[in-house]
Amino acid sequence: MTETLGTHYAPPAVRFDAAHPVLRFLAKRVVAGVLTLFVVSILIFFGTEVLPGNVAQAILGQNATPGAMADLRRNLELDEPLHTRYFAWLTGFVRGDLGKSAARVGAGVQNAGVWQLISSRLENTLLLAGLTILFTALFGIGLGVVLAAKVRRKLDLAVSVILLALISLPEFVVATILILVFSTSLHVLPPVSLVFTGASPLSNPKILVLPVMTLLAVTLAYTVRMVRASMFDALQSDYIELARLSGYSERRIVFRYALRNAAAPILQVMALNVLWLIGGVVVVEFVFGYPGLGEALVEAVAIRDVTFVQSVAMLIATAYVVINILSDLAITLLVPKLRTSL
Predict the structure, then answer these.
(1) CATH number at residue 277
(2) Is 70 among the domain residues?
(3) CA pair distance 267, 271, nearest whole angstrom
(4) Residues of the domain holding 254
(5) What is the pLDDT of residues 26-78, one digit of tens each?
(6) What's the pTM value of the predicted model, to 2 decimals?
(7) Do the domain assignments include residue 112?
(8) Measuring CA to CA, which residue among 273, 269, 270, 262 is closest to residue 232?
């Protein structure tokens, strides 16, 4: 019996040569991803360029002289033809050069590179998203497995209602409720995530609690629901019934066989959580004043720092496409039916 169940999960021997179906699948996805990013780059660049208003005047203010605005436009190469600026920006992005912040150039700052401006903020955003994914994996998968393995009608109904309510609430509503409870009423957590310049949010971990809880309200609820459904289907399978009849303990059945069979859907839901965080973290950072990439992007939109908005938006789109490709590849490798259908 052990050999039979073990064989069920043993992956076939794989030779990774150039003609292997998985490599062909990956190559197709990469090509599709590159084409997608090319189209997205066109939408981002020309979409921001056609916005009404004068970039130089928006940065320098209403009292700026024509000479000062002309100098800024020349420094930012805004006098170049639109298609020339687009290809210069795109080729620079491919090389890792995100361009110069128009607002910083207008303020006379020497080190005005976009990457220098976002590097520290990107670390803060990755910290916030990483903590969210970590707690989502620990509690979401754990609670989903428990609910599927020990079905209790009243408990299951209560948890389902709570999770559905959490999914239905927008992030800013959840954030507001948490601020009212933990900051205004209980006075145990700060309502704003203030960080001193050059310091890490980990220097004051309290400022991370409410933003992470807000993001968890959505990711945890969605993960528990999907893991519970996947595990419940796996536990109803014929080979699980055969394992029970063979006398295996329920713990071994759940964690060794059912959980492994549900690995692909669980991986998929975790990838979807990461993709949602790319957009959801922007709202949460803005609400709590968290010094991350999302807050910087909102500020750049407000002051019409076009180059900053274009480069950061392109970074977000690239992360979205890369995560999609990696999750599809991982799921394809985990599911034998998908592997053999390539």
Answers:
(1) 1.10.3720.10
(2) yes
(3) 6
(4) 16-340
(5) 899 999 999 999 999 999 998 887 766 666 666 666 666 777 777 767 776 77
(6) 0.79
(7) yes
(8) 262
